Amino acid sequence: MLISKSFIPILKNNPSEAKIKSHQLMLRVGMIKQSSAGIYSWLPLGFKVMKKIEKIVREEQNKIGAQEILMPTIQSSEIWKESGRYEDYGEEMLRIKDRQDREMLYGPTNEELVTDIFRSSLKSYKSLPQLLYHIQWKFRDEIRPRFGIMRCREFFMKDAYSFDINDEEAFFSYNKFFLSYLKTFKRLNLTAIPMAADTGPIGGNLSHEFIILAETGESKIFTDKRVFDLNSDGTNLEKKSLEDLRKKYEQFYSVTDEKFNKEEFEKQVSEQNRLITKGIEVGHIFYFGDKYSKPMGASVDLPGGKKDFVKMGSYGIGVSRLVGAIIEAKYDEKNEVMKWPISVAPYDIAIIPMMNKNDNSILDKSNKISLELENNGIETIIDDTDENLSSKIKKMNLIGAPYQIIIGKKTEGEILEFQEVGKEPQKISLKEIIKILKEQKVKN
RNA sequence: CGGAGUGUAGCGCAGCCUGGUAGCGCAUCUGGUUUGGGACCAGAGGGUCGUAGGUUCGAAUCCUACCACUCCGACCA
Fold first, then answer.
1. A339 three-state secondary structure
2. Less CB within 10 Å around the terminal CB: N or C of chain A?
3. Nucleotide nearest to A315 (CA to C1')
4. B35: residue with closest CA to C1'
5. What span, in angstroms and rounded, lies between the C-alpha atoms of A181 and A158?
6. Could you tell me the pTM of the whole model?
C-alpha cells in the first residue's frame, strides 16, 4: 500500500475527547471515526486489524468443532417474551417498532434466537453435542458509553452457544471453550487470565471472565501472581485433559471485585503473591443449564424414550473491544510508538524511502522491494510522500507495522537497514528479512 | 438519570466578561528550496461561530429553549 493512495487520515494533535490511549491512537491514526455516542465507523486501518482478530477467533472456534452461523442483528420480541428477558433486560436493550407496529429489537445477545433455531431443528440426543457460533454486530444501549470502542454501544462480538444432553457433557463443552479462549488470546499476544465471575443478566452458576491486565481497565481484579506462569501447552480436546487445565487455573485465587472476599484472598494467597490491579474483560463464558431451553421448550429425546431440556452455555469474545485492548497493552504513548503483534498487524512491514525529486531510483528500489515482499505473503506499506525522514518515521510508528526498512542514499547495494520496532536496527539482505518475517508469521 | 462542562475551518485552540459581521498553530492546495529523526520561503482556499427564537441600529459575544458531544457518579457478558 502506498501512503499517498491510502485512506489513513493521520492527525498531528490528539483529539481532545479521547482520554485513554487506545481511543487516542485510534482517532489519531484514523482507525475509526465516531458517528454518534458509542457508535463508530471503522476506517481501513482499523477494519483491517479487526478482521485479522476475527480470523484468529474464527480459527480457534473451528478447532474445537464449533460451527459458524450468522444470525440477524434485528430480532423479534416474541422469543424474548418467551424467555422472560424482554422485561428483565431493561433499558439497555434497543427496542424498535416496524411499520406493522411489531415490537422488534436490535440484538444485545443471542441466547433466545439460537435456542429457537435449535429447538425447531434438532430433536434427538444423537445430534448432541452442538457448538454454534457467530460473529456479528450487537447493540447495547449503555447508559454512558466511553473510552472509544472499549465501552461503546454498537460492537462486534463472537458469541458461541453449546447444547448438551447433561451437565457432565455440558461442562466438557464449557472446557473446550476455556481452552479455545486461552489459545485465541495467546495468538493475539495477550495474557488473558480466566477469573471466577458474576453471571449478570445471562444467568447461570458457572462463569469465567477472561481479563487482560491494563491500568485503564474497568474491572478491578484480585489475583495470585502465580497464575501468570500457567499456559495451556499440552492440553488436548480429551475430557480429562480439559478438566485438568481448568483445575490448574482454578487452584489459584483469581476474581473480579464482584466475587472478591478479603478473608479468602488473604487466606489463600501469600502476601508476596497477591496482585490487586485493573483489567479489561475480553471474553466471558457461562454455563446456565436449562435457563433458556426450559421456558422455550428446547428438548431432545433421550435413549430411554424420555425427553429432557438441553443444557446450554454461551461464550463471548469482544472482537472490536480486542482492537482497543491490544492497543492498551502494546502502545507506548509517551514515545508515540505502536507495535502490533504480527498476527493482527495492519501491515507487516513499513518501507520508508528517503525521496529525492531529481532521482527516482530510491522510490523505484522501494517499490521493487515491496513487490518482492508482497510476493512472499508479507504485507507492506510504503511512505511515498515527499516529507522528510523524521516525519515519515513518526507516522509509521503510529500505524504500527512491527518492522521497518529505511531506504536512502546510505543504503548500500543489497544490504538494507532493517529494524524490528523497539529493537536495535540491523543491516541485512532482503532475503534474510523475508526469512525472518515468514518465520514470525508462521509462529503466530 | 444526578452533577459538571464543551460546542468557533479537517484537528487543537483564542476571541465572549466589556456587542461593531472572525483569528492563531497544525493540516490542505500552488510555486520554489529541501530531505538520515515531526524542514524553510512566498502565496492561496476553507467557517451563515451547534440549532431555533428573543433583546438591540447592530449578536460568536447578552437572554431563553432545544440539540449534540465530553467528563465524574450510578449502571455494565
1. coil
2. C
3. B77
4. A388
5. 11
6. 0.96
Q: What distances in angstroms separate CA A73 from CA A58, A101, A315, A414, one per listed residue?
A: 19, 18, 18, 53
Provide, in whole angstroms, the distance separating residue A39's CA from nucleotide B55's C1'.
Answer: 40
Pairing of strands A39-42, A74-76: unpaired
Question: Per-residue pLDDT averaged across A247-259, rounded?
Answer: 90
pLDDT over 90 percentage in chain A: 82
**Phi, psi angle pair for A335, to nearest 5°:** -95, 0
Residue A260 binned pLDDT confidence (cut-offs 50, 70, 90): confident
Q: Would you place residue A256 in the very low, low, confident or very high pLDDT band (cuts 50, 70, 90)?
A: confident
Superfamily of domain A21-330: Bira Bifunctional Protein; Domain 2 (3.30.930.10)
ipTM confidence: 0.92
Exposure of A274 in the CB half-sphere (CA atoms within 13 A): 13
Give nucleotides in strand B with any atom < 7 A to a protein C-beta.
Answer: 1-2, 10-13, 25-27, 33-39, 68-77
Q: Are A170 and A287 in contact (CB under 8 A)?
A: yes
CATH architecture of A347-443: 3-Layer(aba) Sandwich (3.40)
Give strand pairing partners of A301: A124, A307
> Cell 487452584 identifies what position?
A251
